[in-house]
Amino acid sequence: MTHRFLISLFMGTFAKLKTEVLVYILGIESSCDDTAAAITGDTKILANIIANQQIHRHFGGVVPEWASRAHQQNIIPVVEVALQQANISKDQLHAIAFTRGPGLLGSLLVGTSFAKAFSLGLDIPLIDVDHLQAHILAHFIQKEDRQNTMPAFPFLCLTVSGGHTQIVLVTGHFEMKIIGHTLDDAAGETFDKAAKIMGLPYPGGPVIDQLAMEGNPNAFSFSESNIPGLNYSFSGLKTSFLYFLRDQLKKDAGFIENNKADLSASIQHCIVNSLLKKLIMASRQTGIREIAISGGVSANSYLQQMLRKTGEEMGWKIFIPAFSYSTDNAAMVAVTGYFKYLKGDFCGLDLVPYSRQG
Questions:
Q1: Which residues constitute the domain of residue 112?
Q2: Same domain, yes or no, for 112 and 172?
Q3: 124 shares its domain with 161
């Protein structure tokens, strides 16, 4: 063998080994009532563990103090299980990413404190992650079938959850601009409030989605806001729904019970219709046809159905996250942490969480 051939062979082997070395990131999510830990190898999910808090169902919403206490109980076990499922030791981790906000401050403090202590003990970098950015970057999680189902830049992302409703123009992994947002209530909150008015269990969004499958979306109509531009407003719709039921119950005490499916389908149709009208407007204004959705409400089956239908009519390329990456999870935190790790974008131990997006 010639000297040049041996060098070429060595360099080829080195390059192959280099590409096979994975960056392991531990992601911690504790923004609300789910305690979650996930581990990524680059953008591939090796473990994604979530501990739910069922106690809040009895009170029609999350009780912040109980949520933070439950996080304290759950966070060490979920991390241990995540490491076991990923089949790696804590010493193999390259960095720890955690949700810094927005969310419930007491819950965020638990995740933040744990991440700081763990990174200090392991002497590895600490990475803070914005919860809403993480929802968007969930689209860059590597799929098991390795198909390229990631949106190309630039794309529009409709981020809809219990606390937020936004249209985001995404031009890079961390180049995001909010071009439309709710002026009052979020779409997810509207689902939950409508469900509560009808006496449905919490969280109400999934219950309405299920009931609506048997109902007529055009059975009843409610007043929708007519806010100019790309912003949303759902407070008027909630009020219209409340007053409509109040008037109907005066005539028939069993109105809600006898019309649950149609009421669910109708209010769901109004919410989804409002969301898509602004998204269509944003696509036309920007000329962008790569359209993604994210957040807990993105799991709504009617929203997905109508988005696909609208996409066919508008010539959009649609991106919908897997259900496990739609609701709050640590996989999206870990993959966001991976992209920040590549940039060397780390944070110090003096960083504090924030409850609202700035």
A1: 22-143+327-343
A2: no
A3: no
289 CB burial (10 A radius; 0-12, 13-18, 19+)? middle
For residue 17, being part of any structural domain is answered with no
Amino acid at 353: P
Q: What is the pLDDT along the chain (358 residues), one digit of tens a residue?
A: 444 433 343 344 434 434 458 999 999 999 998 999 999 999 999 999 999 766 546 556 677 777 889 899 999 999 999 999 999 999 999 999 999 999 999 999 999 999 999 999 999 999 999 999 999 999 999 987 655 589 999 999 999 998 899 999 999 999 999 999 999 999 999 999 999 999 999 889 999 999 999 999 999 999 988 899 999 999 999 999 999 999 999 999 999 999 999 999 999 999 999 999 999 999 999 999 999 999 999 999 999 999 999 999 999 999 999 999 999 999 999 999 999 999 999 999 999 999 987 6
Closest-CA residue to 259 (of 269, 248, 270, 243): 248
Q: How many domains does the chain have?
A: 2
Do residue 123 and residue 87 come from a single domain? yes
Q: For the sheet containing 290-294, what is the strand order? A: 175-181, 165-172, 155-160, 290-294, 317-319
How many other CB atoms sit within 10 Å of the CB of residue 235? 15
Domain-embedded: residue 268: yes
